[in-house]
Amino acid sequence: MEAWLFWLAVIIIGLAGFILAYLLLGTLFPDAFNLSLGLLKTPVA
After folding, report:
1. How far apart are CA 4 and CA 12, in angstroms?
2. Number of other residues whose CB lies within 10 A of the CB of residue 17
3. 5: pLDDT strictly greater than 70
4. What is Dmax (Cα atoms) for the chain?
5. Distance from C-alpha of 6 to C-alpha of 4, rounded to nearest angstrom
């Protein structure tokens, strides 16, 4: 297997895992999920 192909697969799997973990945390802890979205959208007053 080519080295760049291996690292590309590692990056894709890592991103997919990160997104799945984020969605899972969002379903388990909706308060924290909404808080993080609120912090990203608007500055804390």
Report:
1. 12
2. 10
3. yes
4. 52
5. 5
Whole-angstrom distance, CA of residue 37 vs CA of residue 39:
5
HEC per residue, 1-45: CCHHHHHHHHHHHHHHHHHHHHHHHHHHCHHHHHHHHHHHHCCCC
Tally of residues, the chain:
45
Rounded to two decimals, what is the model's pTM? 0.51
Q: What distance in Å separates the CA atoms of residue 45 and residue 35, rounded to the nearest whole number?
A: 13
Distance CA 15, CA 37 (A): 19
In sequence order, the 6+-apart residues with CB closer than 8 A to the CB of 23 are none
- Percent of the chain whose predicted confidence (pLDDT) is above 90: 38
